[in-house]
Amino acid sequence: MSLPIIHRYLIKDVLLNFLAILIVLLLILLGGVFVRLLSKVVDGTIEASLLFPMMFWGAVESFTTLLVISLFLGMLLSLGRLYKDSEIYALRAIGLGDLQLLLPYLQVTVGVALVLLFLVIWGGPWAKQHVYELRFIAAQKFDLAAITPGQFVRVPNSDDVIFAQASDTKTGALHEIYLFQSQPSLQRIITAQSGRQVTPRDSTERFLEFQNGFIHEIDSSGKRWVEGRFEKSGVYIPGLLQSLLPHKASMLPFTELFASADPQKQAELQWRLSFPISLIVLTILAIPLSYTSPRKGRFGKLAIAILVYLTYSNLLGLSKSWIESGKLPAMLGLWWVHALVLALAFYLLFKQGQILTPRRVKHRQTVESGQ
Fold first, then answer.
1. Could you tell me if residue 145 is inside a domain?
2. Listed ranges 104-113, 202-211, 251-260; the one with the highest mean pLDDT
3. Residue-wise DSSP of 267-299
4. For residue 46, what is the DSSP state?
5. What is the pTM assigned to this prediction?
6. Do 9 and 110 lie in a common domain?
7. Residue 217 sits in which domain range?
8. How far apart are CA 151 and CA 315, in angstroms?
C-alpha cells in the first residue's frame, strides 16, 4: 500500500534535513579526531600507520550518538520550516492533528532505530574492541626515540608527562629530560642529562633509563620535600593488558549482558538500549517543541530543544553511573529518565491542544481531490 502524498512529502523533507545534519556532524567529528590523532603522530605517541584505523573505528564508536542528535535536529528543522512557510496551517485545515503529523516522522524513526539497534548490539562493541586493540598496539609501539624535542608528551596509559630538550637520531637517546609523575599522595619530577628506552632480555616490559639526574618529590600537603641524586635510574612504561580486553562491559556481547545480574553489566545493557528508545521519545517530543510563529523562523525553538536533549543525555549518563556504583537499583535503572521525558512530551502535546483536530478526513482523499 502506497503512502499518502502528505506522508511522502514530510518523510522526504525530514530525511533531507537528517542526512545533511548527519554529514556535517560526521565531518566535524572526523576533523576533530584527525587533528587530535595527528598531533600524537607528530609528537611520537602513536605511529602514522595507526592514524586512519583509529580515526575510522573512533567514528564508528560515536556513530550512535550522531544518529540520535541528527534525526532529532532534522525533525525540528523540518517542522520549523512548516511553521515558517505557514504550511502547518494548511495541514491543520485538512484535519491533521499532532498524532497524524507524528505518523510519518515515526516511520523514519523506526527505520533509524533499527540501524541503532544493530549498532548497539553488534557494531558498537565491535568498534570499541578495535579501538582498544589499536590503543594496545600504539602502547606497545611507543618509542622514546620518536619523541619530538621541545614538546610535552604524555606516556601512553599513564599520567606521566615527558619533555626533552634535544635528541640523538643515531643512538635514540634524549638529552636534558624532564619527567613529571602525578600520584595521589605526591608529585614527582625527575630530571636527567640523558635517557633512552630499554627492554630487558627475555622480557616484554619496557623502561626509561635515565642517567645523571635528580629526583624531586613533594607530598600532597606541600609540607614535605625530598630531593635525591642518581647516576642511573629506571622508570617503568606501563602497557595495556590485552587479557583484560573481554572483561570490559562496553565490549561484551549483548547476550552476556542480558543474562547477567551484575550492576555494571546491567548499566551497560540499559545504556545501549537507551539509544533507540531515546530516539522514539525525542521524536514525540519534537512535535510540541517545534511550535513557533512564522516570524521567529525555523530556528526559533532550536536552542531550547538542544538544551532539552543535553539534559536528557546527561540524566541518562548520571543514572548509568549510579547503577554502576550501586546508588540506583538496576530495576529502576535508566527507565525513569525515559518515562520522565516521555511524560513531558505528552504534557506539552495536551497543553497545546493540537492532538486531534475537529475535521477528520483521510489525507489521500483530501489531497487527491484538490488535484
1. no
2. 104-113
3. HHHHHHHHHHHHHHHHHHHHHHHT---GGG-TT
4. S
5. 0.72
6. yes
7. 158-237
8. 39
Distance CA 172, CA 229 (A): 24
Residues 104-138 have pLDDT tens digits of 899 999 999 999 999 888 887 888 888 777 777 76
Would the CA dihedral through 343, 348, 349, 351 be positive or negative?
positive
Residue predicted with more confidence, 240 or 269: 269
CB-CB contact of 141 with 44 (8 Å): no
Look at residues 365, 104, 135 and name the one whose alpha carbon lies nearest to residue 244.
135
CB atoms within 10 A of CB 208: 22
Q: Report if residue 252 sits inside a domain.
A: no
Largest CA distance in the chain: 94
pLDDT band at 68 (very low <50, low <70, confident <90, very high): very high
Mark whether 268 and 352 lie in a shared domain: yes
Question: Do residues 103 and 7 lie in contact, with contact meaning Cβ atoms separated by under 8 Å?
Answer: yes
Mean per-residue pLDDT over the chain, rounded: 80
Is 178 found in the same domain as 132?
A: no
**Co-location of 134 and 164 in the same domain:** no
Looking at the structure, tell me whether residues 125 and 265 fall in a common domain.
yes
